[in-house]
Amino acid sequence: MAHRREQMPDEDLIELKFRLYDGTDIGPIRYSASSTVAMLKERIISEWPRDKKIIPKVANDVKLISAGKVLENNTTIAQCRSPFGELPSGVVTMHVVVQPSLTKTKTEKKVDKLPKKSACSCSIL
Predict the structure, then answer these.
(1) What whole-number distance in Å separates Cα of residue 77 and Cα of residue 16?
(2) DSSP 3-state of 34
(3) Contact 76, 34 (CB under 8 A)
(4) Contact in structure between 34 and 58 (CB atoms under 8 Å)
(5) By C-alpha distance, which of 32, 95, 25, 35 is closest to 63?
(6) Which sequence ranges form a coiled-coil region, renumbered to this chain (predicted)?
(7) Among 34, 61, 63, 67, which is disulfide-ready with 82 (CB 3.0 to 4.6 Å)?
(8) Rounded to 5 degrees, what are φ and ψ at 98?
């Protein structure tokens, strides 16, 4: 009997799930290997559970991490897939980090207002 896998029309589909900051997942969802990271981010935003404390508003609020690397928006899934994605189970987990640009701006302002007199030093005797 011939391998069914070779004849499947969805051969270039990759099953991904996205692990959120609280350990919950979005997916698994099947994507074309030619889908870009920017497209994944848009889908994550549309699928994001509305009951979460942190909700990304735009794609740039979301960082995707796969195999320890932050993925660039213009990279395709095929380009960023790790060798572990070739395993028969097939589901690749990517971690989602939310960094809203608004929060980043507020944090930068707070840092500037902090007194600079507090310094810490350690001495080993």
Answers:
(1) 10
(2) coil
(3) yes
(4) no
(5) 95
(6) none
(7) 67
(8) -105, 125
Listed in sequence order, the residues at least 6 apart from 95 whose beta carbon sits closer than 8 Å to its beta carbon are 18, 19, 64, 65, 66
DSSP reduced 3-state for 25: strand
User: For residue 25, how many other CB atoms are within 10 A of its CB?
Assistant: 12
DSSP state, 85?
G
DSSP string, 52-71: SS----SGGGEEEEETTEEP
Place of tokens 């971690």: 95
pLDDT in tens, the chain (125 residues): 443 333 345 467 888 999 998 999 999 999 998 999 999 999 999 999 989 888 898 999 999 998 888 999 999 988 876 655 455 557 888 999 998 765 444 444 444 444 455 455 556 66
Retrieve residue 79's tokens. 């380009």
